Every structure is written in C-alpha cells, then in structure tokens.
C-alpha cells in the first residue's frame, strides 16, 4: 500500500487560516493603517512565537522512533540559531546576512521585529490578550494530551506546512515600510528555510498515516491547529479594520 498525505497537505493549504482576509489585506496594503496592523501583530503574536521551542519539544517527547526524534531535534537546533553552510547559502540568496541570525534563537529574532515596529515595552505574559492565551493553551493541550499522530498533525500539517505560505503577506507588507531587513529577518528566514522543517515533519507523518486511525488523528490535529490560527486572524483582522473607525485606538487590549 502506498501511503500518501498529499490530500492532507492540500487541505491544509486551502484552509481559511491560510487564505484569510487578514493575510490578503496585509499582502496588498488594504488596511486603514497597515503600519499599525503590523505593530499590533508584533505586539500579540510574540506571546505565541515565544513558545515554539516548547511546542516542538512536546511533540519530540511523544515520538518513539529514535530517527523521528533525531529529525525534529535538528529542527530544534535551527530554532536556536544554528544552521549549516547549505542553509546559509540559501539565505544569502534571499538577502539574509549570516551575522543577522547566527546563534540567535528565533523568538529573539521576532522580538527584534517587535521592537522595530515600535513595541518597546517589556513583554509581560500576564498582559497577554485572552484571544492569544486561548490559542496558545488550546494548541498546547492538543500537543500534550492528543495522540502522537494528533500532535504531529497539529505542529506539522497544521503549522509548519503553512508557515512559508502565510508569512509571504507579511514579507510583502514589510517591504512597503522603512524597516531595516535585519530587523525583519524572522520572516524571510521562515519562508526560505522552513521547508526543511516541513519536510522532516511530513516524512514522520507518513509513518503515522499508514493506518486509518493514524491518518485520522493527523487530520484531527491539523484541523484543530488551523482553526485556532484562523480564529486568531479573525481577531487581528477585526482590530485592524476598526482602526478606520477609531483612529485613536490604543495598542492595549
């Protein structure tokens, strides 16, 4: 029997979380104030992005096959800012300089972007918006309490599989600002190199997709992750569009 997850990959990329009005508006600059929308995103997304190594280690802990764990540990190494020469060459081709990223964990790269947009106040977890807290806690619950296949579906098919696509609108929106490429390197880094993460997770997913139960769990985790992200986009979209009605809208929730 030939095991295939192409249908799941296609389903994830056709989901509203990937084709959301929020992303479409960012892509073409169709917000009342796109600079404010980027700043608002930077303010709130940090509380999700900061925990990505935790998401990854949670999934690694659920895998029983050493080769699978090793594959994701390589992804964790990249998350900490360590790349091989081939990856540095790929990044250089898209204008990413080695000194911008070498040895710098990805959450710190996002914090650099956050500060460049004007969000300079120290991050206080207790101040996270309830919309963000619900997303993060629900996602972690899926990873922690779901089966290994469900956790893999959430982090792989429902998250890493879409990253290189959903960050493109941010790259395009940022290109219309005066932000320095060093400060926004988080995004081209993920659109250029995250294919490696994606491939590793897809390869592992194939092993779980060999049974109807395993494939069903992969899809369940995938849909949960995508639905949570879509809800978060809904919230950010509503805030960004409300900027036209309330020009003095504060960054605070």
Largest sheet: none
Q: How much helix is in the residues? A: over 70%
Integer tally of domains: 1
Strand tally is 0
Keyword list:
Heme Oxygenase, Chain A, single chain, disordered C terminus, 13 helices, 253 residues, mainly alpha
Polypeptide structure, described:
This protein has 253 residues and is mainly α. The protein has 13 helices and no strands. α3 (34-49) runs parallel beside α9 (130-145). The termini are far apart.
Question: How do the strands and helices of this protein lay out in sequence?
Answer:
Blueprint: H1 6-13, H2 21-28, H3 34-49, H4 52-62, H5 66-79, H6 85-93, H7 98-101, H8 106-116, H9 130-145, H10 148-166, H11 168-175, H12 186-208, H13 212-242
Helix pairs in contact: 1-10, 2-11, 3-8, 3-9, 3-13, 4-5, 4-10, 5-12, 9-10, 9-13, 10-12, 10-13
TL;DR?
Helix content is 70%, strand content 0%.
């Amino acid at each position: 029997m030939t095991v295939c997850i192409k249908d799941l990959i296609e389903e994830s990329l056709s989901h509203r979380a990937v084709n959301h009005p929020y992303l479409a508006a960012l892509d073409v600059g169709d917000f009342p104030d796109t600079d404010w929308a980027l700043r608002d995103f930077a303010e709130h997304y940090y509380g999700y992005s900061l925990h990505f190594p935790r998401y990854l280690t949670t999934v690694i802990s659920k895998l029983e096959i050493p080769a699978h764990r090793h594959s994701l540990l390589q992804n964790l190494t990249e998350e900490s800012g360590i790349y091989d020469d081939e990856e540095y060459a790929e990044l250089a081709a898209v204008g990413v300089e080695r000194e911008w990223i070498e040895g710098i964990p990805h959450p710190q790269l996002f914090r650099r972007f956050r500060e460049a947009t004007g969000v300079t106040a120290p991050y206080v977890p207790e101040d996270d918006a309830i919309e963000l807290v619900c997303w993060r806690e629900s996602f972690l619950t899926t990873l922690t309490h779901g089966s290994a296949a469900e956790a893999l579906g959430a982090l792989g098919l429902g998250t890493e599989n879409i990253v290189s696509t959903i960050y493109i609108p941010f790259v395009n929106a940022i290109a219309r600002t005066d932000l320095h490429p060093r400060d926004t390197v988080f995004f081209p880094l993920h659109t250029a190199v995250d294919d490696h993460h994606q491939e590793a997770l897809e390869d592992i997913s194939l092993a779980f997709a060999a049974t109807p139960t395993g494939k069903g769990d992969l899809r369940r985790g995938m849909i949960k992750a995508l639905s949570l992200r879509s809800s978060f986009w809904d919230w950010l979209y509503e805030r960004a569009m409300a900027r036209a009605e309330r020009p003095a809208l504060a960054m605070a929730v």
